[in-house]
């Protein structure tokens, strides 16, 4: 199926070492899916957390749909994530361990459904972040050097 990327959490790869990822569905209201299709989503600062045997997405900002006639949704409300039982148990236990978080990485439309990719992230320390930045710079310089040599 064709996937249309709506939002990505670029900061997540800078702040966390992503260990494992999984695709999850979202339980949404009608005005929320319309706002998602209009690219009015921000995943920065959002996280997943287990509660009562379910996984919830907190702090994901989905703007109110301006053309909604009826009740509009609250932009920062918690949204239920749809996972298989085995995945739910694995991610719930990881979220409760010290130093690990459930981080949303990207939100996209797959077919008629909104899907989100979440990952188990271990927080990076300051020196790890500097190392990541230096590595990206080295890779970029190497690509530029290769490009210069072949022109």
Task: Give the helix tally.
Answer: 4
Main β-sheet, in a few words? 7 strands, antiparallel
The CATH architecture assignment turns out to be: Beta Barrel
Ends distance: 38 Å
Describe this structure as you would to a colleague.
With 151 residues, the chain is of the alpha+beta class. The protein has a single domain, classed as Beta Barrel (Small Protein B, Chain: A). It contains 4 helices and 9 strands. It has helices at 10-15, 30-37, 85-96, 126-149, and strands spanning 3-8, 16-26, 41-42, 47-51, 54-58, 61-62, 79-82, 100-110, 113-123. Strand 8 (100-110) and strand 9 form a beta hairpin. The longest helix is centred in the C-terminal third of the chain and has 24 residues, at 126-149.
What characteristics describe this protein?
151 residues; alpha+beta; Small Protein B, Chain: A; seven-stranded antiparallel β-sheet; two-stranded antiparallel sheet; 9 strands; 38% strand
Summarize, please.
With 151 residues, this protein is an alpha+beta fold.
Furnish the topology, listing elements before pairings.
Blueprint: E1 3-8, H1 10-15, E2 16-26, H2 30-37, E3 41-42, E4 47-51, E5 54-58, E6 61-62, E7 79-82, H3 85-96, E8 100-110, E9 113-123, H4 126-149
Antiparallel strand pairs: 1-8, 2-7, 2-9, 3-6, 4-5, 5-7, 8-9
């Amino acid at each position: 199926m064709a996937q249309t990327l709506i939002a990505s959490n670029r900061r997540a790869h800078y702040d966390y070492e992503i260990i494992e990822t999984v695709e999850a569905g979202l339980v949404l209201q009608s005005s929320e899916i319309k706002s998602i299709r209009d690219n009015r989503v921000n995943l920065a600062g959002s996280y997943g957390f287990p509660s009562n045997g379910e996984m919830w997405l907190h702090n994901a900002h989905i703007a109110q749909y301006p053309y909604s006639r009826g009740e509009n949704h609250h932009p920062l409300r918690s949204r239920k994530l749809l996972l298989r039982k085995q995945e739910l148990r694995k991610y719930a236990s990881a979220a409760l361990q010290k130093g690990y978080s459930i981080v949303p990485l990207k939100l996209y439309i797959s077919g008629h459904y909104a899907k989100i990719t979440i990952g188990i992230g271990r927080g990076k320390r300051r020196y790890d972040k500097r190392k990541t930045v230096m590595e990206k710079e080295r890779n970029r310089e190497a690509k530029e050097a290769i490009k210069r040599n072949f022109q």
